[in-house]
């Protein structure tokens, strides 16, 4: 039944769609100042860990495919952000300030590949230990829960939402609502439901920032 595939297809593809308006905004303004690259970092770490979680504890294939597609989409999103970012003046004073703010895109890719390789290797070794599997599942979804945090912090620091696509945030809200309902309907592990609820809370916070900083 092809109609039965529609919800599953939406579950796989819909989470990447909110980033299309943000890409359009960055290309239109030739600037990525309104978008926090730490959003990409959060999603990359969360989805790589979720793939490891699936290896140790099988859940819906839709969520596994979603993780692969989101990982690829965030690498592309990071590249677009990097292409339009404002050139840095001077060098960061600390290692923490330099992290995820490198001068060459290949450094980002190397970090992502190294993280995926290390976590994949550890998971292959420890996948038989339930405590490890449940822990990476919890960490993965806890990190993803705070997806909106970097954007909310960036908005607060700048006292502005200029350059941030309202379409992206609206897409987050609708997508997170759909995901949360899906988790309940499919009886996915509790970690997923917790993730959806926290994400919706951050979506609402950012929408409030849009109202507060609209002038």
Polypeptide structure, described:
This protein has 215 residues and is mostly helical. The protein has one domain (2-84, 103-212). The chain is built from ten helices and no strands. The termini are far apart. The mean pLDDT is 87.
Offer a few descriptive terms:
globular; mainly alpha; 215 residues; 10 helices; 0% strand
Termini separation (Å)? 50 Å
Class from secondary-structure proportions: mainly alpha
- What coarse outline follows from CA principal-axis ratios? globular
Q: How many strands appear in the DSSP assignment? A: 0
Tally the helices: 10
Structurally, the number of domains stands at: 1
Largest sheet: none
Q: How much strand content do the residues show?
A: under 5%
User: If you compute it from the alpha carbons, what radius of gyration comes out, rounded to the nearest whole angstrom?
Assistant: 18 Å
Instruction: Report the helical percentage.
Output: over 70%
Mean pLDDT, nearest integer? 87
Order of helices and strands: HHHHHHHHHH
Transmembrane segments: 6-26, 38-57, 63-84, 105-129, 165-185, 191-213
Membrane topology: Multi-pass membrane protein
Pfam families: PQ-loop (PF04193)
Protein name: PQ-loop repeat-containing protein 1
């Amino acid at each position: 039944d092809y109609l039965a595939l529609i919800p599953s297809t939406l579950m796989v593809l819909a989470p990447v769609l909110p980033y299309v308006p943000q890409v359009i905004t960055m290309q239109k303004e030739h600037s990525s100042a309104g978008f926090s690259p730490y959003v990409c970092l959060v999603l990359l770490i969360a989805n790589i860990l979720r793939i490891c979680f699936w290896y140790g504890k099988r859940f819906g294939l839709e969520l596994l495919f979603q993780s692969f597609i989101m990982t690829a989409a965030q690498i592309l999103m990071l590249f677009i952000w990097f292409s339009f970012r404002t050139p840095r003046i001077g060098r960061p004073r600390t290692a923490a300030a330099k992290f995820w703010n490198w001068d060459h895109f290949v450094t980002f890719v190397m970090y992502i590949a190294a993280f995926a390789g290390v976590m994949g290797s550890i998971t292959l070794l420890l996948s038989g230990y339930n405590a490890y599997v449940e822990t990476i599942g919890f960490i993965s979804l806890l990190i993803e829960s705070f997806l909106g945090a970097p954007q909310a912090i960036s908005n607060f620091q700048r006292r502005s939402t200029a350059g941030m696509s309202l379409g992206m945030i609206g897409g987050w809200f609708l997508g997170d609502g759909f995901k949360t309902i899906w988790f309940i309907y499919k009886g996915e592990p509790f970690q997923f439901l917790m993730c959806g609820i926290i994400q919706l809370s951050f979506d609402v916070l950012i929408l409030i920032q849009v109202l507060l900083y609209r002038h």
